[in-house]
Amino acid sequence: MAQQEQNQVQPESKVIKESNTDTPKQALAKVKVRQRKAIDKKKKGRSRKGRDDGFDIRLISIRRVTRVHKGGKRMRLSVVAVVGDRKGKVGIGIGKGSDVKTAEDKAVSYAKKHLVYIDKKGDTIPHEIQYKSGAAKVFLKPAAPGTGIIAGASVRAIVELAGIKDILTKIIGSKNSINNAYATLEALTTLRNTRL
Q1: Residues 6+ apart with CB under 8 A from 96
Q2: What is the pTM of this model?
Q3: Looking at the chain, which terminus has fewer C-beta neighbours within 10 angstroms, N or C?
Q4: What CATH number is associated with residue 72?
């Protein structure tokens, strides 16, 4: 009888040992994972300034610029931002500030104040156009459905945020991404839809 009672007690002690198999390091790792998940949930709830009004933001360039003063050089950051709703409205803005966030906010607010509407024909442009703005020359051509956006980085940012899904483009002349972006935007504003 005594041996049977001991046999019944032993399995219970084994169960207790199995439940506490985590070493201190493993327990700490689990706690850290839970903390990270809680932080991620908090971050998901936040929205960046300007994101809640339906506009997408794309940064074309971030440059470090300097002004020379009597005491030396003053460093600042220049940011070029493209803002669009992917439904035909798009704008470009340049902002300068002591840090990237300040410069980006200035660029985005300027771009939102200077939005332009672009005529589209379905998911492409109504007709082909070659436009010259300073040294930058861009060529835009409508494409068949499913072609996608064939473009460089600065032109792609403008075209995507304008809501154009099928287009063929070519940059001729300037390699300056800011000038190319402005030339693209001016070219798109001159397009006229010929539908009756």
Answers
A1: 65, 76, 77, 78, 79, 103, 106
A2: 0.70
A3: C
A4: 3.30.160.20
